[in-house]
Amino acid sequence: MTASLADRFPVGHTETLTHRVSEAVIDRFEAFSGDNNPLHMNTEYARSKGYSDRVAHGVTSLAWLSALIGTRLPGYGALWRSLRVDWLQPVFAGDEVTLSARVEAVSAEHRMLTLAVSASNQAGITLLRATAEVSVLDEQARVSASSVSTRPDRSRTAGQHTETQETILVLGGSGAIGSAIAEQLAGQGFSIVIGYHANEDKANQACERIAHNKGNARSLRVDVAKMSVEDLQNQLDELPAEFQRRAGLVVAGSSPLLFHAPEQISFEEMETMWRSNVRALWLGYHALRERMTENGWGRVVALGTSALVGTPPARNAAYVSAKSGLWGLVKSLALEAANDGTTFNMISPNMVETDYVRHVPKRVKMVEASKNPRRRLAQPEDVASLAAYLFSREADFINGCNLPLTGGGVMFG
Amino acid sequence: MDSDNHATIIQKARAYENEYSGTALPELMLLSSNTVDSLAPYLLLESVEQGYPLKPWVGPFNQFEQVLYDTGSAVWQKNLHGIWLHLRLEDVYPDLVEAYYREGPGAVRSTFDELLDRLDALITGFRERTSATLLVSNFHSPLRLSFNIFDANQDQGLVYLISELNRRLASLCTRSADTHVFDLAGLVERLGREAWDDPRLYYMARMGFSQRVLRPLANRLVRSFAAARRTSAKVLVFDLDNTLWGGVLGDDGIEGIKIGGDYPGNIFADIQRAALALRAQGYLLAIASKNDRELVLQAFQEHPDMLLKEDDFSSIHCHWEPKTISLPHIADELNLGLDSFVFIDDNPVERNMVRSALPDVRVMELPPEPWNYLAALLNFPGLDRPRLSSEDLQRADMYQQEAKRTRTRSQVSSMEEFLSGLEMKATVGTMNRTTEERIFQLINKTNQFNLTTRRHSLDTLRRFAQQDSAEVFWLRLVDRFGELGLIAVGIVIEEQPQIWGIDTFLMSCRVMNREIESSFLAYVTSQLRNRGAKELRGYYSPTKRNHIVRDFYSEQGFDAVENRASGERVFRLVLAETQVPVWAGFIEQTTRPNVRKFHA
Amino acid sequence: MNDATQKQVFSLMESVFGAPDGTVNLETTHDDVENWDSLNIINLMMSLEGAFGVSLDAEEAEQMLSTALVIDILESKGVE
């Protein structure tokens, strides 16, 4: 059953979108429109006319309004019918502009929404007011659009970061696999929050690499073993606006391997391992759940291990049991929470060549690589590529999967 | 790299494999209940080094019956000259030790009965299918399944039961032609169970022995196989000084040489004992020594500790001429080829001279230390003999008779006089169970007086004997000097109605020049005439060794009718037009005449 | 492992696998050699033991999947 138009878009329902108007944006508008009015293009000229800086083309804001309508309110299925706009104040290069659209009226008969639109800058000054009429495409088209619960395509330009960007929290993001995933996803236009536990330097280095490639990332200390959901939410909330559209979670960390025989294992050791895996997912999921549900689009990817298939390696009871628990939680969430538009999957590589396995003897790694049908160990980038796919629009129907990433070294099923 | 290294041996074997790739080497099939692949390169290497190159190959693992009964198997396309049947108790009865303690010696005995029945069926089966030599491993007690340290304290202990099994295996093999026990148990004992066993290789790769024993095992296998297939040596020619006794007789005098008593005389006493033991097995002893003959004979006669006596030697050549002259003289005297000679001399210079001048003679390499001479003598491959027939045991005596015959020949004026003086008596007959073994042996080892050199399996021979269109004839000879045994074989096959071909005609070379061949051929001819034959065809297939019979059929009145491209020559004798050939008249009777075929 | 010993290992492997001289090097793996099978691993094991006076266990035999691994195993046994 599909909810009625009024149920889905009640009067008063509001969506917002924040973006930064950089000089690059102005330059690009000039480039494709040919409007090279020096008021827009020349700082001195603009100042000579009494403006503090280059003035953005007024229509620029309407481009983001288009995004707001086309992707959020009403989103896919939107057909923009009319617009009446009053420009109240200029927008300067460097301004952070927040657009807001509110449902004013709903016509079920015409499948039409009337939206009241306003834009304000970082100082709270209202920049424009507008009224837009938007029709929502017929039932069939709407169903096909909304059933593909996918985030909008990001036609983002490198270096631009806006509040339309989905943010992904990568727990264990300072590790080799976590940071590889973070970098890959950042390259695809996601904003990244790198959650680290101890290794702040590595987390920051990953952020720098992402920034160097014109991506958007912040690091955040997250103690997955102890931190409360509220704490994490508060810390996330304190991040800038372009990190607020939280839509994805990666659980990539795990406490160090100890290679203890079963009789040597303390419960504390087990618990540490469990917390670093199972609690990390629990924590991340709870912290992001609300936003993901609101978005109607979310992705959760946890890092498993091929050791869950068949005979596990010896002296890894804590690790294997923690990953088993993690997989159990992924499955349950995939069953019960995917209806909100979020998918839950696990990537299970065999030995990945990282620092995490630095205490595994060299011989064992060489043997592992020699026996693998692909004749090498998995690399962090292999994991990142599969993760990137799971975060794509095309992966919408993949849910509750434990995806082997073994080069054929371990085969499932 | 170490020349004994496993990799080196694999590499050498591979090089030999390439070297012989164009040669149809005799093949030795290894059929085993455990993995023996690693043994193959060692066997190839050993066989080349022992002068009898073989192609070893590993048959299907633990599939004795399958190989035997699968007539379509590729096995049967091979040039099989030998089969090693190697079953190990651990492999075939893993629960043997438990059964012994749970159910007692009786249960183990009946298990062994079962095993012997199985081996009997295998041996009989292979014997019927192939003329290849069969070597059957005997059994060592299980290597790793521990049993009571007081096992030997019990009259029915496991070790005792296994030795009983081995004894029964030996009598099983004796009953079958060209089938021999391979004394694996003896080799395990010799090398030691600890050295033999490598549990790691067994559990990893099912190998029944360690790398350490591969070389000696291959050595023994090749020796056993070669001994069964090759004519063994017949004559041991000894040097005297520092070989049969210590010291130099000419310098030290009879009292001064070292023989008997304590060191070093005890070394040479043992060598003389070994020489006597070899003589008792049928080897002829001879002497080639640079010495004064009279003094030597005096030493043999007078030295109180001398075990060998003048009479033990078939020929004594003591003078100052080179040994390269003595040896051919001894050969003439004994009417034997130099290829049946073993030369034993402590002096490497003498050995090398003989080696280069008389390459047919097998020269025994002696180590520098006298105390190791005995081991060299006992391990010399040319002296292995798989089975001692009564003829072997009498051989030394027979050849001494031959020497007397030779002397007789030089005393008479004509060949006729000589032959009549020998008082030869021959018996002839057709093959049956009592003669088949000897006939099989002659067919597979006679090289010189052998017109076609066709090697037949026992199975084929038995078929010939049973068919109406074929027959296997033999001749046995005795003269006034003694028994010479079954020495000639003729096989005839009716090729077309009333036309008989002589498939095989051969004679032991020790009775050449007595016109026996003519008489035997006449006998065969008359038997066939009785049978209604109108024509006889003879064949001569040249080999390296049989040129002496090239003109045999022509001399016997056959007409040469064809020279085939293969080198084979075909002769014909039309019986209606031919006088009965010379009948020497000494053939007295046929034992057990084949009434059904020839007198019906 | 020094160069001379390395060469000896290469040469042993070439002999055992029947590979032409000079074809085995540090990069060689079981994919590159036709006869790198379980029988020849046993043969290689016996060859290495004989050449270097070491004793290899079953697990190490199974690990001999490349020249690099063979050398690593020998080095762990003190072969220099």
β-strand amount of chain C: under 5%
Oligomeric state as shown = heterotrimer
Number of strands of chain C: 0
What's the Cα radius of gyration of chain B?
27 Å
Strand share of the residues of chain B? 15-25%
Rounded mean pLDDT of chain C is: 92
How far do the termini of chain C sit from each other? 4 Å
Fraction of helical residues of chain B: 40-55%
Low-confidence residue ranges of chain B: 589-600
Question: Main sheet of chain C?
Answer: none
Mean of pLDDT of chain B: 87
Greatest chain-chain contact: B-C, 19 and 20 residues
Overall geometry of chain C comes to globular
The chain-level structural class of chain B is alpha/beta
Largest sheet of chain B: 8 strands, mixed
| Number of DSSP helical runs of chain B | 24
Shape of chain B: globular
Q: How many extended strands of chain B?
A: 18
How does this model look, in words?
The complex is a heterotrimer of chains A (413), B (600) and C (80). With 413 residues, chain A is α/β, with parallel strands linked by helices. Chain A is elongated and about 75 Å long. The relative contact order of chain A is 0.10. Chain A has helices spanning 5-8, 23-33, 38-41, 43-48, 60-71, 139-147, 176-187, 200-212, 229-237, 267-295, 317-336, 362-371, 380-390; strands spanning 14-20, 78-87, 96-107, 112-120, 126-136, 167-171, 191-196, 216-221, 246-251, 298-303, 342-349, 402-405. Chain B is of the alpha/beta class and 600 residues long. The radius of gyration of chain B is 27 Å and the shape is globular. Chain C has 80 residues and is mostly helical. The mean pLDDT of chain C is 92. The chains are: A alpha/beta (413), B alpha/beta (600), C mainly alpha (80). Chains in contact: A-C, B-C. At the B-C interface, helix 1 and helix 10 of B face helix 1 and helix 2 of C.
